[in-house]
């Protein structure tokens, strides 16, 4: 579904100031990677202004969307003048989306968004030609760029929606107009920025606006309370659960060498046994969310089973590798208190005859809640029975201090502290040994993947 200059003008109210109403093969916001046939949106940011690279972009691409008229108008290139290039990008994406009458599934929640999005895509793509946002392109820029990739033969779309502040999910929904929404859970991610769990829930529940179907976690009572509040949502609700009655339920869950096996039961439909290729109860929940979304679209249980079993772990999200006699769990993409707790418990469950080693970096975006949240991690380390705790970062050192306090009263883990990932990377191989099960996890800013890469490389 090619984007034309006429589409952009109709979507934005902009003005064609050079060239003709040509058709573009794609959209770019990076003058370094723009390809022939694409149109460049000159976005303004905190550290850059795309207008400074307008000339370079026009040398390679076929046009640009800009907020000012350049001194020299390019020959043979389409130039569209708008008031706000970011809004123009978003409005153009919305314009293309509204040309398609297809199910659009939006995914949000405190934990598991990306994995749930990928699992949902794996299920839907068995039956429909499905668009998804790649990687973590889930914000006010990434989501419209993803929607710009809609083609005429797409039959469905799955879009992850992230947020850092109130109003952001609502804006993403205005752009993408989802028909179905998945809310995985309400946890402590962004707690520092939003100030309370109620505020986190309210921000996530912005996704309900305009939906036909909401897919929600029936085991998250705080979430369910918000969704079922009188007048909050008038569409259909599909629930998933491990502990309660729901439209989709996992029973007889057992760990396997590759991940988890469980009975997937559907309300008023046949049950199927699923062999999931990822570990952890949290990933069973992610699978249930995806299964419930597929079920709400009329996909039969056997196809849902096939989609889930075709899924493999996302990079740096509880990704398991066997390295030099050790088991490495690379969960370094991000962290918050609830996901940290779940990962520690699952690592301990997976641990074999050797030691369990937790390599944990600071958790961000907690603000005034940060100190106590990190101390809680220290308590969890001891309570879970972790053998070695490697604390990375200034705030995670509070968890190490808490461990040491408890160690004074009873047995606890070996404890090491490092200032940052670079320091930990240099020393990590001196601490580890064959037989260890090692979890590496921390917030994105900590770059904990450096440590995971070092473990993989060893001395090389």
Distance between the termini: 48 Å
Q: What is the CATH top level name of the largest domain?
A: Alpha Beta
Could you give a short account of the major beta sheet? Answer: 9 strands, mixed
The structural class is: alpha/beta
Strand order of the largest sheet: 9-10-8-11-12-13-14-15-16
User: What overall form do the CA principal axes indicate?
Assistant: globular
How many strands?
22
The domain tally reads 3
**Strand fraction band?**
15-25%
Q: What is the CATH architecture annotation of the largest domain? A: 3-Layer(aba) Sandwich
Low-confidence stretches: none
Task: Indicate the CATH topology of the largest domain.
Answer: UDP-N-acetylmuramoyl-L-alanine:D-glutamate ligase
Mean pLDDT value: 94
Number of helical runs?
Answer: 16
Helix content: 25-40%
